[in-house]
Amino acid sequence: MKVHYGIDNFTPLKRATVTSGTFDGVHYGHQQILAHLRKIAREDNSETVLITFWPHPRFVLQPEIANKSLKLLTNLDEKIALLEQEGINHLIVIEFNKEFSHLTSMEFVKNILIDKINTTKLVIGYDHRFGRNREGGFDYLKEHQAEFGFEVEEITKQEIENAAVSSTAIRAALIEEGNLFTAEKYLGYHYSLEGIVVNGNKIGRKIGFPTANIQLKDSFKLLPHQGVYAVHLYFEGVKYKGMLNIGNRPTVTEGIKKTVEVNIFDFNKDIYGAEVRLEFVKRIRSEMKFDGVEMLIEQLHLDRESAITALSI
């Protein structure tokens, strides 16, 4: 897959089958759309092109609301890596800013789809909107396709709903319940996040469960619901097993801000300042307040056994 940052860095193709969207998470529903895109491209003897936008449009159009409430499943690098697995020929990453948001639907079609890409087939979801104030859609495109010089195909509502998947549904499963089973089923892979190992107060070390405190690399990245999780931690290309806690540590430091800390099994390296990736495999339990540190330690031993079992499957 060739990645093109900005439409001006793209050379028009002889034939192009195109789709566009934010594709946050590149989940099962997205994967179905992209499979359909590849099928049409094979029949049309054309190359596949996916147009995506960064940052997410809502951070530009509704910054006050989005900065408080919108959490994403993937950052740009993660999205690119996932799309590469889908066998797309070209990915065009367009910077979504105020200027771009003012493009009319006609300007988007003419300036980008026709002049810059040479689109011969356009595939869009049944509810996909584009252009200033979301004025363009399937009916508009279908009505003018002869004028535009490309064919338009719609992914129907039934096809989308049969997949029963949306980025919103996945976010809700992770945020409201920490429901990794549903999230993984919808995503088709383990949810993950990246972060930097930072100094903590070393309470875990004092009770026999030293932890690496993680500061999220991206503030907009979705953090699953509070609780204890079995995870894989990736550091310098090596995968390690561990258990992770998201929460306020009510037994030892109640009232402090939410932390993300992982106890890495059979690991004794100094990784302060290192960048790591965490892959969520199974939710073990909710965060709890225990009647004393001894009961907490007893539970942590049980959690470790549960995590080892989950990570060995």
Automatic annotation (TrEMBL):
Q: Which SMART domains match?
A: Flavokinase
Keywords (alphabetical) are: ATP-binding, FAD, Flavoprotein, FMN, Kinase, Multifunctional enzyme, Nucleotide-binding, Nucleotidyltransferase, Transferase
Q: Give a short account of what the protein does.
A: Catalyzes the phosphorylation of riboflavin to FMN followed by the adenylation of FMN to FAD.
Sorted alphabetically, which NCBIfam families does this protein's record hold? PRK05627.1-3 (NF004160), PRK05627.1-5 (NF004162), ribF (TIGR00083)
Q: Residue ranges of the Riboflavin kinase domain?
A: 186-312
Question: Which source organism?
Answer: Flammeovirga pectinis
Decide whether keyword Nucleotide-binding is in the record: yes
**Per its record, how is this protein called by name?**
Riboflavin biosynthesis protein
Quote the EC number: 2.7.1.26, 2.7.7.2
